[in-house]
Amino acid sequence: MPVESRLPIFNPHESNQNLTFRLFPSLPKELRLLIWTHALHRQRIINVHLSDPWLENPSTFRDRLSTLLSHRQTTGSSPGGWSARAGHYLITVYNSIPIFSKFLRVCQESRKAAFSTLIFAIENEIGVDTFTTPGTFYFNPEWDFLRITGWEQINVHLHIPCFLHDLKVRYDPRGIGLLNLLISDEDDDDITSSLQDSDMPSDIRNSVASTLRQLHEVFFRSKLTKRRMGFTIADGHLDAKPFFNRSLPLHTNISIFDRFATDPRGPTITDLSKQYMGESKTTPYHRFVRLLTEFGISSSTDTATQFQFMITFSARFRGDNRGADGGVYNREDAQKWLRRDYEQNWVRRSWWPKGVDTEVSMGPDYVMDVLPAFGFWLFPLDAMMDTERKPVERLFDMSQHRPALGLSVM
After folding, report:
1. pTM here?
2. 256 inside domain
């Protein structure tokens, strides 16, 4: 079966929307600024990694790391503790494309609107995979979600609380800091494991507690690597008909996303009735609630934080020389990944078990019955709590829930 050169994607094509509005310059300035500001109000997910500054010096890295690990192994703590390390960290923004708003480069008026919307700036390293350059990223607490990680062996228990403190008292002129947080099941050393230091100075601890109490939203992300398609087993025998979750959104490294209260594609009942929810499911949520308790915060009475569970499938290129991540960074990557996926699963079918009905799902009409979306689903808290009632299950019937859709802007 021939593979279409361009398989359809649900995400709108941004470049097709660069239409000319010649009367725009003649509009009143106040109206133009309103239009600029409206266009800037798009949410982002920004990956922030914290580490020690000396990691950037290859001539000292090995000796310093060896000393640090040896000290931690013998004493169980970092050299110098809080007094030596607090506030001294390197910020790297990685795999979050784009970092800069295009409105910073259009004209003086759009740049002014962008700076009024992006509340504050942070000096940092900006990179994709292992390649970084010095830069600045601009941040709006009301719109942006931060995923904050570190390396456990290198003072992450010092860096993350200090970073949260600095967001509030050093970087943000309004003293607000972090409002929206993403916690991923990929991260061993995230915010929930790094804020449990009993020696944390009182000013930093109070600042962290204030941040946790004020959070608007927390996304708990499961990046799925399996069960997008497969074969069911009934009565100990392989079912001849495969299942394929056409509706499951595909992950990208694009930071900007549009958000829909419900998935406008109308995911099929069949897809949601056999939905894999990841291995961890509600574990990250319970860890976060325990963290709140340690700071004297009740998740039900002391905060109005909205908890949502993000489900997305890991769309990665394997075997390519594309860096450590191998993910989707633009529309061209998305098209390429879909073609490869279609060739592997629906053309060659080399991995399909014997006895499977090969007449089922033969053409693109079946595969594209629901257009593939690059982004993620958001399920409410009560939907995920339903999965706890069947702890040994792997596939869940989520058809009674209508997930929200986050759609990568590409």
Report:
1. 0.83
2. yes
